[in-house]
Amino acid sequence: MRRFGVGAEALVGLLGDARLVLAGPSAARALSWPLPDDVTWPVEAYVPEASLVDVLERYELEPDPASDLVLRSVPEPWPFPPHLRVVPDLVAAVDLADGLAVELAELGRSRVVELVGTGSEPSWQRRPQRGRPVRPLIPSGSPAPGPRRLQIAAADMPWDDRAERDARGLVALLFVAGGRLRRAVAEALHCSLARVARACDFLRTSPPHGLTLLEHADHVELVTAPDCGKIVEGFLNVAPPEPLSQAALEVLAIVAYEQLVSRADIGHIRGTDSSSAIDTLLGRGLIADDARYGGRGRPAFLVTTDRFLQVFGLGSLAELPPRSSQS
Length: 327
Fold this sequence. Notes:
This protein is an alpha+beta fold. It is built from 13 helices and eleven strands.
């Protein structure tokens, strides 16, 4: 169960969406139960887990703890009959009794007693929040069939299995391609660019063992994880590169944080000629001239490359450490 921000127009569309079934206080209102008049209760509804992402994207819903829309995600099989718009009375009563609001909990419990007809107050224990299964660090017993289930560690990510399926499809395409793919791979995955971005978020959080997702410009790529670099270099018998000079590191930092940046700007920032250091970085493939600019009398601008991200173990430029307050 999670809250989402919603505008008036989107709310009207949601209330008319056949995939949603009113729950909790919204169901109680539809059933003409006497709700407290001094409180405005949020719109609450059940939604199939398989349709959750489509609903969020279609109505442009964003998580908001103080919003007026509550969605309850339900895994398959969907328990309600087709075209049902309001949950049955007993489900609505249980929803209220299981809520945090004291007024609604009391109403829900009294309705449960009336509907069940036991003649006595039922024993009540709040159900624990449903969590995702976590693979133990040391497996025991026979391995479970099927592929390894990736885990979502970010608490603020939308809770849906679709991101996992899209991420698995993206990994398969990257493996077959053997290199970089444009984000337009969404067409091959039969999903939107927003879902590709969510799949990338998933892979950044839970990458395949020994690999990491690298994002540069509008490309994505699976590369060796930083902690496995020495193992791969030893296997391929690749000598580690010569360390960069202090001047080259300063220039690289300027390009990384200031890009797009011209050669003249770099010299101005450092207060000295930086041509040699720039040539070294160009030769190492850590920086490059941006092809969109320069030529015909215009100055060329320098940017970092995906090689820079690989060497420094970054998934994207967003993972650069924050600037020092003294810079």
